């Protein structure tokens, strides 16, 4: 059994516009100048606690907690008003369903809350594809390896049979810390160079490239691909 764990924001869905707009509005509501869009985008993937601490370093824990509460409220208000969900990246659903049909186990490890992740998966009817969902509201945030450790435990696989696919250096560092194979994607929020520096073994240009790469990295025997040939 082989497990592929995906990041969500910047890897499965392009959510940067909603996240940046909501964080900017949260700072405005609390009466503080908002960081620039690039500063917010660079931190997508971290837990909200770590994001608040980095975006507002001079504030205390109580101020960070207030900012997070406002952000969460505004984000879900925005989601209710949205006419369409954050878009999946091209070919994402096709590749996910192809991998699942081939027998790969799929999971998610994200800086989102479970409520937020469930909403994303439901908006694209992807709930049936993932056997393990790990979120930062019940684990330490990236790059702590706890989410990947739990994902592997739930899937019943070893580090040798696990990949982590993500768009940020936080994803790659988490994979390295967990001992699994870090696979970067070029369509997200961190540069390819940053991903390689953080440990990515390869940086894919598009979703179909994942299947092509895995064919070389995890070659299947004839009996695995054509079980009717088994004696």
How do the strands and helices of this protein lay out in sequence?
Blueprint: E1 3-6, H1 16-30, H2 37-42, H3 48-55, H4 61-81, H5 92-101, E2 105-110, H6 114-123, E3 132-135, H7 146-155, E4 162-166, H8 169-178, E5 181-185, H9 192-198, E6 202-204, H10 208-217, H11 222-225
Parallel strand pairs: 1-2, 1-4, 2-3, 4-5, 5-6
Helix pairs in contact: 1-4, 3-4, 8-9
Which fold does the CATH topology of the largest domain refer to?
Answer: Rossmann fold
Overall mean pLDDT stands at 92
Strand content: 5-15%
N→C terminal distance: 21 Å
From the coordinates shown, what is the CATH architecture of the largest domain? 3-Layer(aba) Sandwich
| Approximate shape | globular
Reading side by side through the largest sheet, how are the strands ordered? 3-2-1-4-5-6
Alpha carbon gyration radius: 18 Å
By oligomeric state, this entry counts as: single chain
CATH hierarchy class name of the largest domain: Alpha Beta
CATH superfamily of the largest domain: HAD superfamily/HAD-like
């Amino acid at each position: 059994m082989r497990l592929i764990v995906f990041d969500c924001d910047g890897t499965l869905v392009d959510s940067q516009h909603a996240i940046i707009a909501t964080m900017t509005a949260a700072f405005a509501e609390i009466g503080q100048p908002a960081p620039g869009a690039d500063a917010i985008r660079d931190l997508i993937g971290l837990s909200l606690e770590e994001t608040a601490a980095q975006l507002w370093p001079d504030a205390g824990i109580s101020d960070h907690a207030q900012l997070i509460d406002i952000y969460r409220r505004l984000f879900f208000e925005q989601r209710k008003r949205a006419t369409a969900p954050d878009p999946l990246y091209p070919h994402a659903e096709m590749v996910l369903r192809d991998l699942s049909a081939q027998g790969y186990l799929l999971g998610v490890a994200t800086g989102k809350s479970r409520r937020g992740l469930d909403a994303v998966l439901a908006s694209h009817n992807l709930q049936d594809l993932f056997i393990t969902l790990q979120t930062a509201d019940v684990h330490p945030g990236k790059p702590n390896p706890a989410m990947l450790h739990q994902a592997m435990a739930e899937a019943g696989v070893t580090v040798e049979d696990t990949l982590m696919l993500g768009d940020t250096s936080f994803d790659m560092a988490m994979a390295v810390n967990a001992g699994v194979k870090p696979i970067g994607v070029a369509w997200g929020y961190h540069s390819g160079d940053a991903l390689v520096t953080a440990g990515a073994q390869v940086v894919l240009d598009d979703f179909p490239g994942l299947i092509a790469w895995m064919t070389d990295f995890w070659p299947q025997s004839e009996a695995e691909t054509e079980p009717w040939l088994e004696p």
